[in-house]
Design brief:
This protein is α+β, with helices and mostly antiparallel strands and about 180 residues long. The chain is built from 4 helices and 4 strands. β2 (about 105-110), α3 (about 120-140) and β3 form a beta-alpha-beta unit. The radius of gyration is 17 Å and the shape is globular.
């Protein structure tokens, strides 16, 4: 029975370490659900790989880019899918263009899911979504050293509600510069 209490303590410690490893300090800049880009993405500018400010670029047709980083930083996925929707290809190409023009820039691709499904399944699905974006970016000529994948699964919802509209907003990959 002494082993059992040791095993429980070990499980709790591993769980805490896992949750701590999945934490982040930054907010996100969300795009529209239809993949439209507010400003034209030129990929020009002198970027340092760091984005300042906390503006929300979630509305189409709004302000341009910060340091040349494309304004739309979130793409959305269909339920239980990791396939990139065609309406977001222009968003991905804009990020690829920026990253190719700024080889020192780095981005973390944060995969998210809605709350349906087991925790383990959602962690895997978030990772598959982020890896899907990573593969697309690699095909576009972005160096793999500029990309990092993190899955938050259902742990960091964009919207806390239990309806289909909220679920749709939580099924996403966020570009975190």
């Amino acid at each position: 029975m002494q082993f059992s209490s040791y095993a429980k303590g070990l499980v709790v410690a591993v769980s805490l370490a896992f949750v701590a490893g999945c934490s982040s300090t930054g907010g996100t800049q969300d795009g529209s659900m239809d993949g439209t880009i507010g400003g034209a993405a030129t990929g020009q500018g002198v970027g340092t790989g760091q984005a300042g400010g906390t503006g929300l670029g979630g509305q189409s047709g709004q302000a341009g880019q910060q340091n040349g980083i494309p304004n739309v930083r979130t793409i959305y996925f269909d339920f239980d899918r990791d396939t990139i929707r065609s309406e977001f290809e222009s968003v991905l190409r804009a990020h690829a263009q920026y990253l190719r023009a700024n080889p020192n820039a780095r981005v973390v691709l944060e995969g998210h899911t809605d709350e349906r499904g087991t925790r383990e399944y959602n962690m895997a699905l978030g990772e598959r979504r982020a890896n899907s974006v990573l593969r697309y970016m690699s095909v576009q000529g972005v160096s793999p050293s500029q990309l990092e994948v993190v899955s938050y699964g259902e742990e960091r919802p964009a919207v806390r509600s239990t309806n289909e509209e909220s679920y749709a907003q939580n099924r996403r990959v966020v570009f975190s510069y």
